[in-house]
Amino acid sequence: MIDVQRVDYIRVPVTDMEKAVHFYGEVLGLERSRNSPHEDWVEYEVGNLTLAVMTPETHEYEFAPL
């Protein structure tokens, strides 16, 4: 049995970064992390969770809806 106590990091693939930044930053009001490395990879700190929104095609991944 695995004893999972919390989640630290979630990566969310998106096809439109501008819309995603609007949704997470403006609609939900999440604060963008200072550690966001690029415009195609944006991180938000939500309590003890890092939510990373990224465009898979610019990081050698293929987009697959969740």
Global mean pLDDT: 85
Radius of gyration: 13 Å
Helix and strand pattern: EHEE
Report strand %: 25-35%
What general outline do the C-alpha atoms trace?
globular
N-to-C span: 26 Å
In which order are the strands of the major sheet placed?
A: 1-3-2
Category from helices, strands and their pairing? alpha+beta
Poorly predicted runs of 5 or more residues: none
Short description:
The protein has one helix at 17-27, and strands spanning 9-13, 41-46, 49-54.
Tell me about this structure.
- With 66 residues, the chain is an alpha+beta fold.
- It has one helix and three strands.
- It has one helix at 17-27, and strands spanning 9-13, 41-46, 49-54.
- The protein has a three-stranded mixed sheet, with helices on one face.
- The longest helix has 11 residues, at 17-27.
- The termini are far apart.
- The model has no long low-confidence stretch (mean pLDDT 85).
